[in-house]
Design goal:
about 475 residues; alpha/beta; two-stranded antiparallel ribbon; 15 helices; globular; binds 6-O-phosphono-beta-D-glucopyranose
């Protein structure tokens, strides 16, 4: 099939501050929760590579942004690190601010539109020690950080995002115990999810205020990024499977979609949470705050579908209600290295969900990519990694995106994650995502993989 990028459809790259910058103690940067975990239990990290390294973006940002330009990309999302921009007294750290000003200036010089996200799973450690997202004071601290960023960089950045994947911290840190501090406590998880929702809405309020005061670009926009893929269950589902689907979709997707499209949380989900003792603590006036959470557009991260079924047990090992169990689709095609299913049509299904259920909200695919282990074995004689699997992965996803646009989805662009190999949390550099390789033994040198040439050509052939 002939594949052409539609005219005006933007193509860029996504990465994040904590996964790229490194320089963890440079320029007054505070300890972040990733540094704490790395210091306390380095063996949890693949090859014992902790949070300190990133891919040296702190020193290589100019080279990286130029590289993006040379591939024809038009935009790039990263995130500021709260721990770099702010100090422990909740004042701006001028050295941190100077770094981000330099990155922004460089992107502007290269005519790369910089999308700036404010939070990518990376809380400063001192705030985590105060209770993290369970503590409402931390919500206030985040709002102060967001306010500071809007006011400092408001004239320089057009596209802002409050959070990347706000569902991940309640899930990974509080509900399933995979990430530091390894809790398995559904009740605390819901409190965290609720407080992040308030933090989002309050940050949007600050954004609108700063804009009204003329402190930001007139065309500035605010959004939220999440992994909103619609969940699937098995064929011929039972009523219990459908109930599992309602709650899975309710907590992971509709929770955020209703918040950012309509300014409230889904009533059926809150009702179920109340009935089973999982309702978070709220305060009078919260509903008014949530009403301000409506955004200008959305980022949709998509790697794999979620497949679930009715839970075998009604409660988990701690006695909390279980809403679903995973369902393994017998026909699933897997990315065996990352253990994630590859299902490109999921991206189309999300487009149709948006068209039908949230027709006024535009979106873009803000992350999509393929992480592969030991890519060295795919190196050719000339030393270039032949990542045909990645080309196939991106091609198939782009085809479904373009089909969704033809069928009425308002999808404006695509960002590949992570264009340049970067640090994947506790998987460190195990699975490489880049179209550009980073040589960890060779001073973080960047080298193009085959897919980099492929994307460049695709962009050159974009419809005129
Ligand atoms: C997304 C995150 O969920 O997935 C990224 O926003 C992350 O931060 C990416 O790196 C890929 O997942 P992983 O766990 O393989 O790094």
């Amino acid at each position: 099939m002939e594949r052409k990028i539609p005219k005006n459809f933007f193509i860029g790259a996504a990465m994040s501050g904590p996964q790229t910058e490194g320089a963890w103690k440079t320029g007054g940067r505070l300890e972040s929760i990733w540094d704490t975990w790395s210091q306390e239990r380095i063996s949890d990290f693949y090859n014992k590579v902790g949070s300190y390294v990133g891919n040296n973006f702190y020193e290589k940002y100019e080279e990286d942004i130029r590289l993006m330009k040379s591939l024809g990309l038009d935009s790039f999302r990263t995130s500021m690190q709260w721990s770099r921009l702010m100090d422990e007294n909740e004042k701006m750290n001028p050295e941190g601010a100077e770094f981000y000003h330099k990155v922004i200036r460089c992107a502007e010089d290269e005519k790369i539109e910089l999308f700036m996200n404010l939070y990518h799973f990376d809380m400063p450690a001192y705030l985590f020690r105060k209770g993290g997202w369970e503590n409402r004071e931390v919500v206030e601290a985040y709002v102060n950080y967001a306010r500071t960023a809007f006011r400092e960089f408001g004239k320089e950045i057009r596209y802002w995002f409050t959070f990347n994947e706000p569902i991940v911290e309640p899930d990974q840190r509080y509900r399933n115990g995979f990430w530091y501090p390894f809790l398995k406590d559904a009740k605390r998880g819901m409190q965290v999810q609720y407080h992040i929702s308030l933090a989002h809405a309050l940050a949007v309020r600050e954004f609108r205020k700063a804009k009204e005061e003329g402190l930001m670009r007139e065309d500035a926009q605010i959004g939220l990024i999440n992994c909103f893929a619609p969940p699937y269950t098995r064929e011929n589902p039972t009523p219990e499977d459908l109930e599992a689907l309602r709650m899975e979709d309710g907590i992971n997707n509709r929770w955020w979609l209703d918040l950012v499209a309509e300014g409230h949380l889904p009533e059926d989900v809150l009702k179920t949470l109340s009935e089973c003792g999982l309702m978070p603590e709220t305060r009078p006036g919260d509903e008014e705050i949530l009403k301000e959470g409506i955004v200008d557009w959305l980022g949709f991260n998509y790697y794999h579908p979620s497949r679930i079924q009715a839970p075998a047990e009604k409660t988990d090992e701690n006695g909390y209600p279980k809403f679903s169990d995973p369902y393994v689709w017998p026909e699933a095609k897997m990315n065996i290295w990352r253990g994630w299913e590859i299902y490109p049509k999921g991206i189309y299904d999300f487009g149709m969900k948006m068209k039908n259920e949230y027709p006024n909200l535009k979106f873009f695919v803000s992350e999509n990519g393929m992480g592969v282990e030991h890519e060295d074995r795919f190196r050719n004689e000339a030393g270039e990694i032949q990542d045909d699997y990645r080309i196939e992965f991106v091609s198939e996803h782009l085809d479904w995106i373009f089909k969704s646009i033809e069928d009425g989805a308002q999808c404006l662009g695509y960002h590949y994650w992570g264009l340049i190999d970067n640090w994947s949390w506790n998987n460190a550099f195990k699975n490489r995502y880049g179209m550009v390789e980073v040589d960890l033994m060779g001073n973080y040198q960047r080298k193009l993989k085959k897919s980099a040439g492929w994307i460049k050509q695709l962009i050159e052939e974009r419809e005129k």
